[in-house]
Amino acid sequence: MARIGVFVCHCGENIGRTVDCARVAEELGKLPGVAHAIDYKYMCSDPGQALIKQAIAEKKLTGVVVAACSPHMHEKTFRRACGSAGLNPFLCEMANVREHCSWIHEDRDAATDKAVDLARFIVEKVKRNVPLETIRIPVTKRALVIGGGIAGIQAALDLADGGAEVILVEKEPSIGGHMSQLSETFPTLDCSQCILTPRMVEVYQHPNIKLMAYSEVAEVGGYIGNFDVKIRQKARYVDAANCNGCGACQKACIVRKVPSEFDEKLGKRTAIYVPFPQAVPNIPVIDRASCAYFKAKAKGVKKDACGKCKEACSKGAIDYEQADTFVTEKVGAIVVATGYTLYSIGKDQPEGLRGYGEYGYGTIPDVIDGLQFERLASASGPTAGKILRPSDGKEPKRIVFLQCVGSRDPAKGIEYCSKICCMYVAKHTMLYRHKVHDGQATVFYMDIRANGKGYDEFVRRAIEEDGARYVRGRVSRMYRDGETIKVQGFDTLSGEPVVIDADMVVLATAIRPQPGIEQLAQKLSASYDAHGFFNEAHPKLRPVETNTAGVYLAGACQAPRDIPDSVAMASAAAAKILGLFSKAELEREPTVAKVDAALCAGCFHCERVCPYGAITRIEVRDRKGNLVKIVAEVNPGVCQGCGTCQATCPSKSVELQGFTDEQIWSEINALLA
Amino acid sequence: MKELQELARTLLSSGTVGVVIGWEEGPRGARPAFITDAADSSRLIFDHRCTHNLATYLSPRRPHMARLGKAAIVVKGCDARAVAGLLRETQVKREDVVIIGVRCGGVAADPAGAKPLTAETVAERCPGCTAREPHLADHVVGEAQPEPPGAPTRDARIAELDAMSAPKRWAFWQAEFARCIRCNACREVCPMCFCERCVGDKTEPQWLESSPHPRGNFAWHVTRALHQAGRCVDCGECQRACPADIPLGLLNRKIAGIVADRFDYRATDDPTVPAPIGAFSMSDRQEFIL
User: Fold this and answer.
1) CB of A604 within 8 Å of any CB in chain B?
2) In chain A, which among 606-625 make CB contacts under 8 A with chain B?
């Protein structure tokens, strides 16, 4: 016979004001199987918990029901109290008579009746509770960071400095990400390369960091504390162990006019290249698509057409036969820091987006995007830091900047604000004025969002000290008139249409997630929003976690982020992971699914519907070792207790522990009785 | 017929299989046959009376079948879809079964049905059948057969039911289910009902009342039909086995139509096509998610 103790909490006045707690205790005390029922002012307080512990000992309780607040609030508190009194914590349940009752009702009698009902059905559930043991899983104290931009670099360094081993995977030949392309950074105008490249070198030299550049995550298996990650190292055609980074191969390369990705197609590179001189690692890669050797091979030319780089290399590091290799690494946690890409101003757009026909779909050569302007302004850029327009190399005297191109424009497919454009456009106008003293910058804006430390002051400086002219309004059309670009817009403050002559136009295009991010999210079983940004577990309280345990977020893969935000997120994710790694074992609530192998028919619908890949197949054998059948089994480390398998199983052979059909059924029956 | 018998003889005498599951002549028309001796192969028949879906004997929950050894099974095109279903749901391994496909010109609703097959005697699933040629087969025997006689009738009946008001439709099915005696023949004959323990037999909690009572009957038939959603191969065996003549085929057909409409899935004998229950596609309609 069950001996349940019921503890009714007044929560000060919160419950007691509307619910007659004494009557609830009295009514519950009459139920069969209830051995003890009392009410108390603050059940969560020390003396309140003592009442529970005392009753467990004295009345030999087999289960505890606390009728109080939401289990979100205090279930852990009361379960811990029960545990310390020797009762299995999972024999304790809460009936929520505050949020579900006292706070939302006025009639005292009716609310009290409802509180009795709420506690009554939980009593029926607890009668069917069984002791459950906390799940303990070992933790691999090694983290994977996906993406080597500033967020990934920061996360990797913080983790490595905290004593964890880190594998940093970067798909490009060098780490550094978009930040390495920037000229100066807001709101201090310090040189981006100057603050970033030392961090890149630190990553390279850190004993705890294994850098895997030019690599991609191919597969992710396992679960928190125990991920198995298959990484594809793309063929560089250069033996990294032998290359000393002398650059002779690049000098020898005969293909010299490949548009440089790093210079946003404004500069040229060779077919064997490092993206930029400060690249880490400083090991070139051969771009197979433009390499003369590989092109000749593809055409079936028997005699080697080129091979100049191989001849030039004194270390014999060029290896045309190199192939992609795969390595599998065990890690305990994963940081996603895949960053962003810019909204394309061209005609071809991904599904759901529409380009800007009114701006010529990027066909006007002197209409460029923000990153291209960064390269023009950068000392390491194609113009060595001189602002020269792409079409004829002349210095533009009039530049028009357009904010919110693609952003905040549901008709074009993106309703969100890209967050960084207001600031970098202000920065661009300043850089421009600092380099072209008689140049006039005009900015079309919707409103200025400069909400960061020193941000508004920065924008004011652009306007007041560096003479940027801000026009509130949108541009409806842009066309060429000889060497001039006519920018036709509307000044919404004066209410006048305006036409501004420009030598160059810079479009502050929207921030979008990296292409392929959905596939990565699917590999990680992490969720993403309609735009492809990763979803955080909670927008306020768990901003750097995903809903998949052990997978964390840093930087612009989650939403448009500036550098300070990205760095803060990266450090936060690192702190979360170091916290995870500080324990020898992970503890998990045992409210996970469990298969009854005797009943399972092995149809594996559960395997197909499980969003976490928690179902595995095991063999059932008889005593002689003959295979009887293959059935499903739940890996408790991976299972998140969502119950999808339980709902799908046609024969109800898998159940969520702590929420079995029998328990729920008895609750409903108690309510209907 | 000779071709089929010869094939069975070869398979048995060579030891490739331990049993050939087919049809033979019985006292009341065609009946399932389990040939374990090559000498008995001449008992095998195939004609328009072989309406049974023999795939149900492949269920791993029939241990007496497993004792006969590896099986060869004779399937019509429609039955092959059930074998595909069993493969898809990992109940059978492909290498553990030899599939002998027969070309079908339609079968009679009643295995005792006399010749020739007419629009009156043909099984209601046959007119307009698109699965008469088995693809999932190791051997295909027999000549191409003529189209089954008659015209499809079931969709018109479903449309009639759909056109009814909800209370009228409710009354129709209540009346049909009221005849149910809960003999579970529909479940036992179904090749896709292979659970170790049917949810209908579950106690603690008992989801479905097991006595023939309107509430339990309704719950049972709705549960059975829903558990077949995207799995039913439309072999008509449940309806044929029903001693109370409940038109279960209509329920199955209705649900198959919904599944086809929503998930673009139709019963197929290609086991690599994923069943809609565990397959997610970006093109799945999601308007129910608010």
Assistant:
1) yes
2) 607-609
Please classify residue B289 by burial: count the beta carbons closer than 10 Å to its beta carbon, then call 0-12 exposed, 13-18 middle and 19+ buried. Answer: exposed
pLDDT > 80? residue B281: no
The answer to whether B196 contacts A653, with C-beta atoms less than 8 Å apart, is yes
**Which CATH number is A589-657's, of 3.30.465.10, 3.10.180.10, 3.30.70.20, 3.30.530.20?**
3.30.70.20
Whole-number Å distance between alpha carbons of A574 and A544: 10
Of the candidates A128, A131, A132, the one whose C-alpha atom is nearest the C-alpha of residue A661 is A128
Q: How many angstroms separate the Cα of A64 from the Cα of each of A20, A43, A94, A129, B17?
A: 20, 13, 8, 10, 60
CA angle centred on A200, ends A197 and A206, rounded to 5°? 140
Q: Where are the beta strands (DSSP E) in A556-596?
A: 585-588, 593-595
Query: How many other C-beta atoms are found inside a 10 Å radius of the C-beta of residue A15?
Result: 27
Q: Out of 2.30.42.10, 3.40.1350.10, 3.40.50.960, 3.90.550.10, which CATH number does the structure's domain A4-132 have?
A: 3.40.50.960
Give the gap in angstroms from C-alpha B12 to the nearest C-alpha of chain A.
25
Q: Which of A13, A553, A518, A433 is nearest to A189 (CA)?
A: A433
Q: Which of A195, A147, A521, A530 is nearest to A341 (CA)?
A: A147
B191, with CB counted inside 10 A (0-12, 13-18, 19+), is: buried
Cα separation, B234 vs B79, in Å, equals 9
Question: Nearest CA to CA, how far is A223 from chain B (Å)?
Answer: 21
Partner B contacted by A96 (CB < 8 A): no
Joined tokens for residue A473: 């309004």
Mark yes or no for CB contact B202/A651 under 8 Å.
yes
Tell me the domain boundaries of chain B: 2-141, 154-263
User: Is the CB of A532 inside 8 Å of chain B's CB atoms?
Assistant: no
**Which of A603, A605, A609 should one mutate to test binding to chain B, selecting the residue with the greatest count of B CBs within 10 A?**
A603
Q: Distance (Å, rounded) from C-alpha A442 to C-alpha A462? A: 11
* Residue B244 near residue B58, CB atoms below 8 Å: no
User: With contact defined as beta carbons under 8 Å apart, do A149 and A178 qualify?
Assistant: yes
ipTM, interface predicted TM-score of the complex: 0.91
Q: What is the pLDDT of residues A440-484, one digit of tens each?
A: 999 999 999 999 999 999 999 999 999 999 999 999 999 999 999
Sign, Cα dihedral of A502, A503, A508, A514? positive
* Residue A339, token pair as written in the block: 């960053």
Q: Where are the alpha helices (DSSP H) in A506-562?
A: 517-524
Q: Which fold has domain A342-512?
A: FAD/NAD(P)-binding domain (3.50.50)
For chain A, the structural domain boundaries read: 4-132, 342-512, 589-657
Closest CA of chain B from A442, distance in Å: 44
Q: How many CB pairs under 8 A join A and B?
A: 56
Q: Which helix (H) or strand (E) holds B25?
A: strand B19-26
3-state secondary structure of A594: strand
What is the 8-class DSSP label of residue A533? P
- The parts of chain A modelled with pLDDT lower than 50 are none
Task: Give the tens place of pLDDT for each residue, A602-657.
Answer: 999 999 999 888 999 999 999 999 888 999 999 988 888 999 999 999 999 999 99
Rounded to whole angstroms, the Cα distance separating A639 from B186 reads 36
Amino acid residing at A450: A
Tell me, yes or no, if B91 comes closer than 8 A to chain A by beta carbon. yes
Chain B residues whose CB is inside 8 A of the A653 CB are 195-197
What are the tens digits of pLDDT across the range B220-256? 999 999 999 999 999 999 999 999 999 999 999 999 9
Q: How far is A35 from chain B (nearest CA, A)?
A: 25
